[in-house]
């Protein structure tokens, strides 16, 4: 009986070893499938060949940036130019000028003429506030009731400065136009109510865009209530359009083939509309888990190598978009069609740049962004990865001159060369030990402004 039982059941050691080996094989197979998915690159051969031989029209000759008036800086591209930028940091990091507590939130900063502006939450109210950049002293505050019920509470949007006015959007869709000197309101809108829009799961997050005389927003309502443009002075509605669910990204403006267009990265598509009337120019479907398209589209232009002119007739316009949750990125070529419309053609899609909410920056033909949790350099011509650095987590970055300033989620500050060669950071520090650092750094007037969930700090980055 015992012999028969042993013969039927086999040696337990051999059985468990077989199970373990099978488990290891399954893990290895799953990892190979994951790598194949992550390394996926789908390229249009003709469009890629055209870009491979094009000359990038970059910003190397751009003048020194005077301030930081809005989300992502003077041109909404995450780039600032600073003649006396210090890359030679002391061992413990750049000099700290001041540190202040701030209410909860993830709003970044707008800076002009020695003052800076941001949003935060206190109790059941959100607050727009102004401080002196020299010492962090508060100048004024404008509180308002906020009824957003979201995870990670606090405002996400960065205010926009235009002339003597400041424009802000709260996490519940409260749109304010304030006097930048005093904080007194000129006008106010409830975007979700006015445009019959549902509150996004993680709150209203776009930063308002000023272009010309118009203020551009994306409430996300249905039946022509998705996008809205207002007169920036009076607050009067100029146009509304489309039927796109809200995303979490901020609009950008670009002129293509003589047509001024506003690009909105909505919950399920990237759309471009005419700035003056909101008519659709083109649409590119892009669905992501939970409708989280959050990174700001990055636009740039190139020209054929055989042409030395840069008029709009021979410019080639491109847009790069990226999303998290494994969705990846896409490079699009925007072309004018015969009927006055436009078309977005896919140059390539890649799983190697999954920007969850941090927006990438460009230097020449290379893109630098945070692929999920790793700082990554991508060749824009072909979508191939040049290098990756771990340890950033859900951080954010900006480009200053030919360097990258990177703030990691856990409070680490890195200074990298913005080059395609794989190099270690040339300087680093640890400004924060505690809350999440999900707010984009700002460099203006020689000062670096950083923020975690309930604290902000200012550092001096001027050469001594």
Task: Provide structural commentary.
The chain has helices spanning 2-9, 12-38, 45-52, 191-194, and strands at 41-43, 54-57, 79-80, 96-101, 110-112, 115-122, 125-132, 138-145, 160-162, 165-169, 174-179, 185-190, 209-211, 214-217, 227-231, 237-241, 252-256, 259-265, 269-274, 280-285, 298-304, 316-323, 328-336, 342-350, 361-363, 366-371, 374-379, 385-389, 396-400, 403-407, 413-417, 427-429, 442-444, 447-452, 455-460. It is mainly β. The strands form eight sheets. Strands 1-24-23-22-21-2 form a six-stranded antiparallel β-sheet, with helices on one face. Strands 3-29-30-31-32 form a five-stranded mixed β-sheet, with no helix packed on it. Strands 4-35-34-33 form a four-stranded antiparallel β-sheet, with no helix packed on it. A hairpin with a 2-residue loop joins strand 5 and strand 6 (115-122). The longest helix is centred in the first third of the chain and has 27 residues, at 12-38.
Helix-strand layout with pairing:
Layout: H1 2-9, H2 12-38, E1 41-43, H3 45-52, E2 54-57, E3 79-80, E4 96-101, E5 110-112, E6 115-122, E7 125-132, E8 138-145, E9 160-162, E10 165-169, E11 174-179, E12 185-190, H4 191-194, E13 209-211, E14 214-217, E15 227-231, E16 237-241, E17 252-256, E18 259-265, E19 269-274, E20 280-285, E21 298-304, E22 316-323, E23 328-336, E24 342-350, E25 361-363, E26 366-371, E27 374-379, E28 385-389, E29 396-400, E30 403-407, E31 413-417, E32 427-429, E33 442-444, E34 447-452, E35 455-460
Parallel strand pairs: 3-29
Antiparallel strand pairs: 1-24, 2-21, 4-35, 5-6, 6-7, 7-8, 9-10, 10-11, 11-12, 13-14, 14-15, 15-16, 17-18, 18-19, 19-20, 21-22, 22-23, 23-24, 25-26, 26-27, 27-28, 29-30, 30-31, 31-32, 33-34, 34-35
């Amino acid at each position: 009986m015992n012999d028969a039982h042993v013969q039927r059941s086999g040696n337990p050691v051999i059985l468990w070893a077989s199970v373990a080996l099978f488990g290891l094989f399954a893990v290895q197979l799953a990892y190979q499938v994951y790598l194949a998915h992550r390394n996926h690159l789908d390229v249009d051969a003709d469009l890629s060949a055209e870009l491979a031989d094009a000359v990038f029209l970059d910003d190397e000759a751009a003048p020194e940036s005077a301030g930081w008036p809005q989300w992502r800086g003077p041109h909404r591209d995450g780039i600032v130019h600073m003649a006396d930028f210090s890359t030679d940091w002391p061992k413990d990091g750049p000099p700290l000028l001041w540190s202040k507590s701030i209410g909860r939130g993830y709003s970044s900063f707008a800076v002009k003429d020695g003052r800076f502006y941001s949003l935060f939450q206190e109790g059941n109210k959100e607050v727009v506030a102004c401080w002196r950049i020299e010492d962090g002293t508060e100048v004024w505050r404008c509180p308002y009731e906020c009824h957003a019920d979201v995870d990670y509470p606090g405002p996400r949007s960065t205010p926009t400065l235009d002339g003597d006015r400041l424009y802000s959007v709260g996490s519940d869709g409260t749109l304010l136009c304030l006097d930048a000197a005093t904080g007194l309101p000129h006008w106010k809108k409830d975007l979700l109510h006015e445009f019959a829009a549902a509150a996004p799961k993680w709150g209203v997050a776009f930063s308002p865009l000023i272009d010309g005389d118009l203020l551009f927003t994306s409430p996300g309502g249905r039946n022509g209530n998705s996008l809205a443009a207002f007169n920036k002075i009076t607050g009067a509605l100029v146009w509304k359009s489309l039927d796109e669910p809200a995303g979490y990204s901020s609009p950008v403006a670009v002129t293509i083939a003589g047509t001024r267009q506003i690009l909105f990265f909505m919950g399920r598509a990237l759309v471009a509309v005419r700035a003056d009337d909101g008519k659709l120019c083109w649409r590119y479907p892009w669905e992501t888990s939970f409708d989280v398209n959050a990174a700001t589209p990055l636009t740039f232009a190139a020209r054929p190598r055989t042409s030395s002119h840069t008029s709009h007739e021979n410019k080639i316009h491109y847009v790069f978009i990226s999303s998290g949750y494994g969705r990846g990125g896409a490079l699009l070529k925007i072309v004018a069609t015969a009927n006055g419309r436009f078309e977005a053609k896919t140059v390539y899609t890649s799983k190697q740049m999954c920007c969850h909410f941090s927006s990438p920056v460009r230097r020449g033909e290379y893109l630098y962004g945070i692929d999920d949790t790793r700082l990554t350099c991508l060749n824009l011509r072909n979508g191939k990865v040049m290098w990756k650095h771990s340890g950033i987590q859900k951080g954010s970055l900006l480009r200053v001159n030919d360097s990258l300033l990177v703030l990691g989620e856990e409070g680490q500050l890195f200074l990298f060369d913005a080059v395609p060669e794989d190099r270690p950071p040339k300087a680093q520090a640890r400004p924060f030990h505690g809350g999440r650092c999900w707010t984009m750094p700002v460099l203006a007037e020689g000062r670096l402004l950083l923020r975690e969930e309930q604290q902000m700090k200012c550092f001096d980055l001027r050469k001594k």
